[in-house]
Amino acid sequence: xxxxxxxxxxxxxxxxxxxxxxxxxxxxxxxxxxxxxxxxxxxxxxxxxxxxxxxxxxxxxxxxxxxxxxxxxxxxxxxxxxxxxxxxxxxxxxxxxxxxxxxxxxxxxxxxxxxxxxxxxxxxxxxxxxxxxxxxxxxxxxxxxxxxxxxxxxxxxxxxxxxxxxxxxxxxxxxxxxxxxxxxxxxxxxxxxxxxxxxxxxxxxxxxxxxxxxxxxxxxxxxxxxxxxxxxxxxxxxxxxxxxxxxxxxxxxxxxxxxxxxxxxxxxxxxxxxxxxxxxxxxxxxxxxxxxxxxxxxxxxxxxxxxxxxxxxxxxxxxxxxxxxxxxxxxxxx
Length: 334
Known about the structure:
The chain is mostly beta strands. It has no helices and 28 strands. A hairpin with an 8-residue loop joins strand 12 (157-158) and strand 13 (167-170).
């Protein structure tokens, strides 16, 4: 894989022919954020075009994953899962030359729903002949299947695997249901506005269209005391970073905010939002400390504990999706 090296000030030391520019050779090379994190950021476009890159924060190196396209959706150990039109692929990052392996292919179908849960990769096959949720191993073997043909309302589907082993589904005609096996239990007449691993943001309206939003525990359905973003028909909300952070965008202005659900504090405001997709134009590390943002056109790493930030000379496309990954065991570890 081709690579370049970044400095903490965002300049590039070597690898100018990789498209990252050049800088003086006498500048010191060190961790991008001034300390070792063991983390990398994978960047890839939401659509099919463009090669994925791995930015190693400790070494400052930027690697092209040659032959790998699509968007990053999750990790299974050291294997990166990617999705693109009609295809899911797995890329073993522990090898010196990562080579993508196709897990499943669909004909004329966009793999919009992909969820990595433990060592299982979930997606949906939606054809005239079937409507099923498929669980795949990292080798591409089908390990589970959930028939959705009896679901009378289709998308959106929030699941598939939750702490209680149940799935939440939302009907297009309204109502939130818990599916256990083939049985359904209605939990609300409202709709889901955002979903995390253990919580959901729901909106319910009465017969006079007076609406109220609340956060709910997915397992117990108890109401949670978390701050509520300002919801509208032109807003979208995403829970990221182990259910601690909420990313909210107002499409009327294109402005997005990152808020801490534990404290209610808005920690960052971003502009120029053009896409809002799984993985998204922003990502939070699993420990909730590091934040990656590319809404300004370049990759910015933020320490959410201190609010310090570093802008890197890594070009980002408007539809790029980012994902923090642990680099231990991969070929990109320092």
